[in-house]
Every structure is written in C-alpha cells, then in structure tokens.
Amino acid sequence: MTDTSTRIRIDKWLWCARFYKTRELAAEACEKGRLRLNGNRVEKPGKELRPGDILTLPVRGKVMVIKVLSGAPRRGPASEAQMLYEVIEE
C-alpha cells in the first residue's frame, strides 16, 4: 500500500521549496518540459513527487540536480524550504 501523505504535486513542492515565486510559474516550467524527474521529462504540473526522487531543474541559468527529502505542508521561510531538498550537483 502506498502512503499518500508523502506525495505532493511537483508544482506545489517547487513553490514551497522556493524555486519559483508562484505556483503558476512552477506549473509553466513543468508544461514547457524544463524539469526532469528521475531522468524523465516532466510535462504535467500534477506529477507527484516522493522523498528520494531526483529532480533536475534550471536555476539562475545553471542546471541544478537535487534530491527530494520531504514533502511540504506549506510554504515557509527560506530556512525551512532548504530542509526539503539536498543539492547533488550545481
């Protein structure tokens, strides 16, 4: 049985982790295929993330590879957002 409490929509997680200022911008990045989840191109903002997933995304003109550590119940301060992921490669 899969635990649904650990899953979160990718657009919401990106917004909560402060990679995008709005959830709409995060959804747009997904729809344009700018993100990769575990090596596969993401085209739908409703795609679900789980702890342990590897996410590749553009950040300030560079490609960043991160490991998702946990979901986010809400958008908090930047210090809290940094606890949601681990940078693998910048």
TrEMBL record:
Domain of life of the source: Bacteria
UniProt key word RNA-binding: yes
Cited SUPFAM superfamilies: Alpha-L RNA-binding motif
A Pfam family recorded for this sequence: S4
Domain RNA-binding S4 residue range list: 8-77
Keyword Flavoprotein in record: no
Keywords annotated in UniProt: RNA-binding, Stress response
Gene Ontology MF annotations: RNA binding
InterPro entries: S4_RNA-bd, S4_RNA-bd_sf
Name of protein: Ribosome-associated heat shock protein Hsp15
Species annotation: Rhizomicrobium palustre
